[in-house]
Specification:
The protein is mostly helical. Helix content is 78%, strand content 0%. The longest helix is centred in the last third of the chain and has 27 residues. The two termini are 21 Å apart. This is Twin transmembrane helix small protein.
């Protein structure tokens, strides 16, 4: 159960970072500013971290595939 909460929190942080990148892009008039790049870099790092977390959870048996 705690693993699901962690995954959901990371997904929410990814969405927040994506939203802040959009706000910075709009406020800066479409120019690529350092804060836009930083917000999108944080999103990429969080996405890669989530992917690694899911792979580790699968390798350790915390999550397992199931047929639908």
């Amino acid at each position: 159960m705690i693993f699901k909460i962690i995954v959901i929190l990371i997904l929410l942080m990814i969405l927040a970072s994506l939203g802040s990148g959009l706000v910075f892009l709009i406020r800066d008039g479409g120019r690529r500013s350092p804060r836009t790049v930083k917000a999108l870099t944080v999103r990429i790092v969080l996405s890669i971290g989530l992917f690694v977390l899911l792979m580790l959870a699968y390798a350790t048996g915390l999550i397992s595939p199931h047929g639908l």
